[in-house]
Amino acid sequence: MTEVKFDKDGLIPVIIQDANSKEVLTLAYANEEALQKTIETNETWLYSRSRDELWNKGATSGNTQQVTAVRVDCDGDSLIYEVIPNGPACHTGEKSCFHETIHGTANESAADMFSQLTGLIKNREEEMPEGAYTTYLFTEGVDKICKKVGEEAAEVIIAAKNRDPQELSMETADLLYHVLVLLQEQKVGLDQVIEVLKERHATKTASK
Fold first, then answer.
1. Is the CA virtual torsion 54, 46, 86, 120 positive or negative?
2. Which residues contact 160 (CB under 8 A, 6 or more apart)?
3. Which residues contact 32 (CB under 8 A, 6 or more apart)?
4. Largest CB tally within 10 Å, which of 26, 40, 88, 135?
5. 32-49 pLDDT, tens per residue?
6. CATH fold for domain 110-207
């Protein structure tokens, strides 16, 4: 704790950040006890200035957060909790407390786009709306989905051989979509795939 600097009220600002998408979810505060509980439990503990008490995120709402890392800035006077959220972070039901833009245009990150797309695919499987292409794929089953993945992979190869950047972009997008459908059908999360990539990267980096 020696590197963490609390202010005169014994508090330190905490940025809550999605560990996978890196989206900022909340800005809150912690005191030393809240920080210690966060480190001990790997759950988000904070200090409510309005209620003058500790609070465990999700204890009431069920929207818990698994803390994967606690980071401190170079001056030691602010923290980041990297979390895997189980539900929205904001009391309004929004994923992030920073869901309103008052100036400019907020650029959607690749991680946000994949998160939204995987969410849509999951909803399609649960609701099976009539007429939706994703519904058709789930109705036909794994053989059809695998066939489409194979077809789209072949189209990507052809586009690459043709040296056509626009065609390659479009065919790769089609391939990624069908792979995401296949992952959902198999109940394999995209985060599991990313973890494999991280582990491989870490292993190769360590071996250098």
1. positive
2. 168
3. 1, 4, 6, 10
4. 26
5. 999 999 999 999 999 999
6. Helix Hairpins (1.10.287)
